[in-house]
Structures are given as C-alpha cells and as structure tokens.
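Final report, closing paragraph on structural work. Over the funding period we assembled a curated collection of sequence-structure pairs, and we close with a single example.
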Amino acid sequence: MNGRCTCGDIRYRLTKPPVFVHACHCTWCQRETGSAFALNAMIEAECVDLLAGRPEEQVLPSNSGRGQIVLRCPSCRVALWSHYAGAGRKVAFVRVGTLEEPGRCPPDIHIFTSTKLPWVVLDGRVPVSLEYYDWRDHWPAESIARRQAMSAKG
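Its predicted structure, as stored:
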C-alpha cells in the first residue's frame, strides 16, 4: 500500500498490512484532525518505507499526558503517521486518509466512543469500546504474533 501527503513531497509504502486499525473518537483526535474521528493503521515502524521526501517531527500533547510524535510533510503540513509514548518508535500509527487506497484499511475497532459525536452512527459490525480496550480480546492471532515480535526486539 502506498501513501503520500497532499502536495506529494512525501511518499511512503507499507510493506505489510496493518497490525490493527483504530477509529478513535476521543476529543483529542477530533481536535487534531478537525473531524469526527481519526483512522489510524498500526504497523511496525520498520514496515513504513519512505520513498520520497523527509517528514518533519512535531511533538504534541496527548490525552495520556505522555505526548506523541507526529510526522508531517514540511511543505503541506499533512500528518502522515504518529508514534505514541506507549508503543514508542517501534509502532507507527499511519493516517489511513494518506493512503492512496484508504478503503483497504477499514477500522477493526472504534475506540473512545464515550466522546463520539452524537450524529456518528455505528452499526455494530465493528467492535466498539467506550474507552480503550484490551488488545488480547480483539486482535487476531497474526496481529498478536507481530506484537510479540516487536516486543522481543526491545
């Protein structure tokens, strides 16, 4: 899967499918995206191959209080992916909207729906969590194996 920023200065490729895709409805994501929720594809950072350009890092606060590092295009300022303190730099949370085919990454779960906008209707086909969730209850075996491999790398 290939992705890019709006102006095309930054181009990247995912070398594997995402581990898991979050539709996050927290107020922080709503504010940062200017939308109803953020759609982030979790993937091993080593599986994000930069094809062109060099993203710029920006440290932003997060609801956890531990912050996040957002990688943006220095020209058009589009956020391409983040690294959150909990997972560190081993995991990239790729903004699905920056993929050339975002329809290939539907959400695996809706999280922080306690602050979901009232006009967003979830039909129950995708799991819903009022806050965060226990990954062991929702991730498929292959994703769990990939998580364990990332943890083993230190």
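The CA atoms of residues 17 and 141 lie 14 Å apart. The chain has two helices and ten strands. We thank the funder for supporting this effort.
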